[in-house]
Design a protein that fits this description.
This protein is of the alpha+beta class and 391 residues long. The protein has 3 domains: 5-125, Orthogonal Bundle (Butyryl-Coa Dehydrogenase, subunit A, domain 1), CATH 1.10.540.10; 131-228, Butyryl-CoA Dehydrogenase, subunit A, domain 2, CATH 2.40.110.10; 237-384, Butyryl-CoA Dehydrogenase, subunit A, domain 3. It has 11 helices and 11 strands. The chain has helices at residues 17-33, 38-44, 49-58, 76-89, 91-111, 114-125, 237-271, 283-313, 319-344, 355-367, 372-384; strands at 67-68, 71-72, 131-134, 150-154, 157-168, 175-182, 185-192, 198-202, 214-225, 273-274, 277-278. The termini are far apart.
Length: 391
C-alpha cells in the first residue's frame, strides 16, 4: 500500500502540535456534520446552513483568526488548515466559514465601532448569527471602482440604494456588510436583516456551490442611523483588505478539494482492474498520480509560507502575495479534479464519488474573489511597475 500524497515530503513535520490538533478538530467536524450528507445537499440544492454554523461555532471555526469578542484568536495557518479540511468535504461549506469569519466578521472587527463589535461578533463566532458581504454588483464584479450602490446623507441618517449580487449567505443572513459609494468615497454599513427597503432574492438553478445559499440584495431607500456605518472605513481599500484576508482561506481550502479528489482516485485506481491488473499499476496512471501529488505538495508549501508570513506580520499580506497563492492553488486544484475524473472514467460523474462535485465547485472558486486574469494583472503590475488594468 502506498502513502497518501502529502506524506511524500513529511509535510506534517512543518506544523506545530496545536496546528495539527485544530486540523484534526476540523476534520472531525467535517466527518460528522458534512460528509455523510453533502452529496444529497448538493443534489437537492438545500443545505441546513444554520445547523452547520452552530456546529462550526461550537468547534471554534468561525472568525478563528480574530481576537476578542468571543473569537478564538488562532493563527492564520490554523485557520487555513481548518479550511483545507472543510473544503475536502465541500467548497460551499468552506465558503460559509470564509465569508462569515474572514469577510463579514473581519470587516466589523477591523473597521467597526465597539458597539458594532459587541453587537455582532460574539453571536457570529458562536454560529448563532450569520452574515454576508455585499460588494459585488450585477455590472461591477472584477471592477469595484465602478460601484453603483450609493449612500447619501439625509439629516442624521444614511439612505442606501443599489443592488448586490452573488452574495453568499445573503438569503439567511442576520446582518449584511454593505459597501456603497458616498460623497467622500466608499464606506461600509452593518445592515440588520429586516431593515425596511432591504430585499433578498435567492439565486437558484446553480450548477456549482449547490451546498450553499447565494442571493441578490436590493437596497431601495434603506434608511440607517449613523451608528450602522463602519467608522474605520476611509476608502475602497477597506473592502479590498477584507478580500485579501479571505483569500488565504481559499489558498489553503482548495488544496483540501484537490486532496480529496486525489485520495479518491488513488483508492479507486487500486481497486479498478483492467487487462487483468489494477489500473494504478499502469505507467500512464502513475504519471498522472505523480504529477498531481507534486502540484498538491507545492501548493501546500506555498500556502504554508503565506500563512506563516501572515502570522509573522500580524496583518494582511500584500495583494500580489495572495494573488500568487490564489492563482496557483485554484488553477492547480481544478486541474487535479479534472485529471482525477479521467482516472475514475464514467464513474467519476456519479455523486457516489466527490470528484465531479469538487470540480464543479472549483469552477466557481476559480472566478470568485478575483478571477485568474485579475490576479495575473496584480502580479504583473508588481513585476513591471505598470498598471495594466483597463481604465
Amino acid at each position: 500500500m502506498g502513502v497518501r500524497p502529502l506524506d511524500l515530503l513529511d509535510l506534517d513535520e512543518l506544523l506545530t502540535d496545536d496546528e495539527r490538533e485544530i486540523r484534526a478538530q476540523a476534520r472531525r467536524v467535517a466527518d460528522d456534520h458534512v460528509r455523510p450528507h453533502v452529496a444529497g445537499w448538493y443534489e437537492n440544492g438545500n443545505t441546513p446552513v444554520r445547523d452547520l454554523a452552530a456546529a462550526f461555532g461550537d468547534a471554534g471555526l468561525l472568525g478563528m483568526q480574530l481576537k476578542g469578542y468571543g473569537c478564538p484568536g488562532s493563527s492564520a495557518v490554523s485557520l487555513g488548515l481548518a479550511c483545507m479540511e472543510l473544503e475536502a468535504a465541500d467548497s460551499g461549506v468552506r465558503s460559509l466559514v470564509s465569508v462569515q469569519g474572514s469577510l463579514v466578521m473581519y470587516a466589523i472587527w477591523r473597521y467597526g465601532s465597539e458597539e458594532q463589535k459587541a453587537r455582532w461578533l460574539p453571536g457570529m463566532a458562536a454560529g448563532r448569527l450569520l452574515g454576508c458581504f455585499g460588494l459585488a454588483e450585477p455590472d461591477h464584479g472584477s471592477d469595484p471602482t465602478g460601484m453603483s450602490t450609493r449612500a447619501r446623507r439625509d439629516g442624521d441618517d444614511w439612505v442606501l440604494d443599489g443592488v448586490k449580487t452573488w452574495i453568499l449567505n445573503a438569503p439567511i443572513a442576520d446582518v449584511a456588510v454593505i459597501w456603497a459609494r458616498a460623497e467622500k468615497g466608499v464606506t461600509g454599513f452593518a445592515v440588520p436583516a429586516g431593515t425596511p427597503g432591504l430585499a433578498v432574492r435567492e439565486i437558484g438553478h446553480k450548477m456549482s456551490l449547490r451546498a450553499s445559499s447565494t442571493g441578490e440584495i436590493v437596497l431601495d431607500g434603506v434608511r440607517l442611523p449613523e451608528s450602522a456605518r463602519l467608522p474605520g472605513v476611509r476608502s475602497l481599500m477597506a473592502p479590498l483588505s477584507c478580500l485579501t484576508e479571505a483569500r488565504l482561506s481559499i489558498i489553503f481550502g482548495v488544496l483540501g478539494a484537490a486532496r480529496d479528489c486525489l485520495d479518491t482516485a488513488l483508492d479507486y485506481a487500486a481497486r479498478r482492474e483492467q487487462f487483468g491488473r489494477p489500473i494504478s499499476g499502469f505507467q500512464l496512471t502513475q504519471a498522472k498520480l505523480a504529477d498531481m501529488a507534486l502540484e498538491l505538495q507545492k501548493g501546500f508549501l506555498l500556502a504554508l509560507h503565506l500563512g506563516r508570513m501572515r502570522d509573522a506580520a500580524d496583518g494582511p499580506l500584500r495583494p500580489e502575495q495572495v494573488s500568487i497563492g490564489k492563482l496557483n492553488n485554484v488553477r492547480e486544484a481544478i486541474k487535479i479534479a479534472r485529471e482525477c475524473r479521467t482516472i475514475l472514467g464514467g464513474n467519476g460523474i456519479l455523486h457516489e464519488y466527490p470528484v465531479m462535485r469538487h470540480a464543479s465547485n472549483l469552477e466557481s472558486v476559480l472566478t470568485y474573489e478575483g478571477t485568474s486574469e485579475i490576479h495575473q494583472l496584480s502580479i504583473g503590475q508588481k513585476l513591471t511597475g505598470l498598471n495594466a488594468f483597463a481604465r
